[in-house]
């Protein structure tokens, strides 16, 4: 067997091992990505920018709500894309760091109002990895607080119509009592109706 054939056989074996373990990693990633909050607005996400191990972005939040940052290492031990040596992310507002996280996971922040928030990620590829590219899935999402829903114009028209109808009914009752000479507060009782 020639040197080139041995190298080709070793490459094929490594790729077969990678492909045999890859579905496990992708199934775990799919389960993680399915954890989206109901009503969440995805601000950003995906993989790291090409060739970068540190990246971040600034997000302008327009009101109160919940900001969630998640990161997940998609590497699989014993493959061409090994697990990362380290994964971390942090969230800052103005000059204050709101929180930082080391490893896979998520952080959630309850925000009281609008503001600019900076989210930073850092991923160090494994020294055992064949490629120095981090395999990370990340997402930044925001769920605004439920706000009071204003009444539609049709409801206001209905209320105005009911008020008008009630006013007209009182006016008719007042006119009817003034024509009959009975006081407005007079109302027949059950005993009066029985006689």
What does this entry look like structurally?
By secondary structure, this protein is α+β, with helices and mostly antiparallel strands. It folds into 2 domains: 3-144, Jelly Rolls (Sandwich), CATH 2.60.120.380; 149-179. The protein contains 3 helices and 8 strands. The chain has helices at residues 3-33, 153-180, 190-194; strands at 41-46, 54-61, 65-73, 86-93, 96-102, 105-111, 115-124, 136-144. It has a 4-stranded antiparallel β-sheet, with no helix packed on it. A 4-stranded antiparallel β-sheet has the order 2-7-4-5, with no helix packed on it. A hairpin with a 2-residue loop joins β4 (86-93) and β5. The longest helix is centred in the N-terminal third of the chain and has 31 residues, at 3-33. The termini are far apart. Residues 19-23 have low confidence and may be disordered.
Main traits of this protein?
33% strand, 3 helices, four-stranded antiparallel beta sheet, alpha+beta, Jelly Rolls, 195 residues
Helicity level: 25-40%
CATH architecture annotation name of the largest domain: Sandwich
Task: Report the radius of gyration as a whole number of Å.
Answer: 34 Å
Q: Count the domains.
A: 2
The parts where pLDDT drops under 50 for at least 5 residues are 19-23
Number of helices, counting only DSSP H or I runs of 4 residues or more: 3
Biggest sheet, spatial arrangement of strands:
1-8-3-6
The CATH C-level name of the largest domain is: Mainly Beta
Structural class: alpha+beta
Principal-axes shape call: rod-shaped
Q: How widely separated are the two ends?
A: 123 Å
Q: Largest sheet, if any?
A: 4 strands, antiparallel
The beta-strand count equals 8
Mean pLDDT: 76
What is the CATH topology classification name of the largest domain?
Answer: Jelly Rolls
Strand content: 25-35%
Which series of helices and strands comes N to C?
A: HEEEEEEEEHH
């Amino acid at each position: 067997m020639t040197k080139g054939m041995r190298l080709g056989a070793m490459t094929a074996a490594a790729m077969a091992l990678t492909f045999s373990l890859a579905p496990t990693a992708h199934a775990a990633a799919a389960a993680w990505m399915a954890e989206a909050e109901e009503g969440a607005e995805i601000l950003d996400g995906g993989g790291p920018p090409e060739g970068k191990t540190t990246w971040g972005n600034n997000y302008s939040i327009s009101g109160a709500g919940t900001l969630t940052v998640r990161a997940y290492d998609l590497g699989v031990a014993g493959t061409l894309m090994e697990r990362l040596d380290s994964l971390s992310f942090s969230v800052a507002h103005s000059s204050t760091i709101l929180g930082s996280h080391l490893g896979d996971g998520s952080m959630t922040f309850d925000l009281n109002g609008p503001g600019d928030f900076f989210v930073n990620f850092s991923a160090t590829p494994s020294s055992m990895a064949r490629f120095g590219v981090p395999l990370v899935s990340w997402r930044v999402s925001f769920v605004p607080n439920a706000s009071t829903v204003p009444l539609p114009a049709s409801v206001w028209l209905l209320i105005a119509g009911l008020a008008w109808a009630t006013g007209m009914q009182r006016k008719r009752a007042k006119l009817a009592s003034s024509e009959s000479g009975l006081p407005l507060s007079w109302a027949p009782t059950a005993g009066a109706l029985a006689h």
